[in-house]
Design goal:
Shape: globular
Number of strands: 13
Oligomer: single chain
Radius of gyration: 20 Å
Strand order of the largest sheet: 2-8-7-6-5-3-4
Largest sheet: 7 strands, mixed
Structural class: alpha/beta
Order of helices and strands: HHEHEHEHEHEHEEEHHHEEHEEEH
Number of helices: 12
Distance between the termini: 55 Å
């Protein structure tokens, strides 16, 4: 008997999440994974590598709580924001019984994490203005345990309307969790929904050090929620989720000096993004530049496949979203360093 047949039926049918590294590509300018162009410098103390690390290192928890403006009891640190997403599903959803709700097009790991845990997915697509369909979501709250929203949304860059979110939170009280994924919020911090945490026990916020902090390689994310929700997640999380070197780097990144460096990086990325958006809007093949709230721009070309191929021939690896609902001819461009942005602009300026 094939060993594949021993796997759960759902896993046998599953298409894995197509991460940038899994897709791969041939080139020297990598602008397909929303990574930062630099990471900064950090020091490591290796004296305790023979010991298991603390489950929730206090130096990281306390530093992130101070940064996010919440109490330490409202913070959980995990292996990237992705583990936070999976922990929520494993903690609150009964396999084969419960469902989550997502609003496509959006981040693909919500659905993948649900499906790998035997949890069904309800889809309520974004509206024509690329906002969550709050009426449609509220109408289906009795069918789901968790609603996942992304703000800024990956890949479109749109922000969740706060008035609509508050209406949803009021409707979801005691019925479902509402998760707002703020992986890119440092690029527009004034739009964070963290201030609502103390008013709504059912609100959960996902954060990460992968984007603005330039630390995708250490896989360090955070879940912000009520102490009750954090306590439940701590029952499910692995015993040693944060390696000691990761905790050391994260604590340095969240120090006063580390926050200054992060904000300088954000300022530079936002400057380059504004410049690129302006050039794109003047280009004959560009039909639409989506909301510029993350460290990327989603762009609709005419045709997208031709522009993607031109960039690829120049060694520039981008992310094609043409297969996603409502995103025909759309390509996502990560904002890299000035030289990488110049390489993109050079291709745009070529004879069409």
């Amino acid at each position: 008997m094939s060993l594949t047949k021993l796997a759960r039926a759902k896993v046998q049918q599953l298409t894995p999440y197509q991460s940038a590294r899994r897709i791969g590509g041939q080139g020297h300018v990598w602008l397909n994974a929303n990574e930062a162009a630099d990471s900064g410098e950090f020091s490591l103390n290796c004296e305790r590598l023979n010991r298991y690390p603390e489950c929730q290192p206090p130096q990281v928890i306390n530093a992130y709580a101070a940064y996010a403006g919440v109490s330490p009891e409202q913070v959980l640190v995990s292996r990237g924001g992705d583990e936070g997403i999976e922990l929520l599903i494993r903690t609150f959803c009964e396999p084969g019984q419960d469902r989550i709700l997502i609003c496509p097009p959006t981040y693909g790991m919500y659905a993948i994490s649900a499906e790998t845990n035997g949890v069904e997915v309800v889809e309520v697509p974004l509206t024509n203005t690329r906002q969550p369909d709050f009426d449609g979501i509220i109408a289906r709250l009795d069918e789901v345990k968790i609603v996942f929203l992304c703000s800024p949304n990956n890949p479109t860059g749109d922000l969740v309307d706060e008035a609509g979110l508050v209406r949803l939170l009021n409707a979801a009280r005691g019925r479902a969790l509402v998760v707002v994924d703020e992986a890119y919020i440092e690029f527009c911090p004034e739009h964070s929904q963290a201030d609502l945490l103390n008013d709504y026990d059912g609100l959960v916020i996902i954060r990460t050090l992968s984007k603005a902090f330039g630390l995708a390689g250490i896989r360090c994310g955070f879940t912000l929620a009520s102490p009750e929700v954090i306590g439940l997640l701590l029952k499910v999380i692995a015993p040693y989720p944060v390696p000691d070197p990761v905790a050391q780097i994260a604590a340095q990144a969240l120090s006063d000096q580390g926050l200054v460096l992060m904000r300088k990086r954000v300022d530079e990325i936002n400057r380059l993004k504004t410049e690129l958006a302006g050039r794109l809007e003047q280009h004959d093949q560009v039909k639409q530049v989506f909301a510029p709230n993350g460290n990327y721009l989603l762009v609709r070309f005419a045709p997208g496949s031709e522009m993607f191929a031109r960039m690829s021939r120049a060694g520039i690896i981008l992310r094609d979203f043409a297969s996603k609902p409502g995103l025909a001819d759309c390509i996502r461009i990560t904002i890299g360093n000035p030289a990488e942005m110049d390489a993109v602009l050079n291709v745009l300026q070529e004879e069409q």
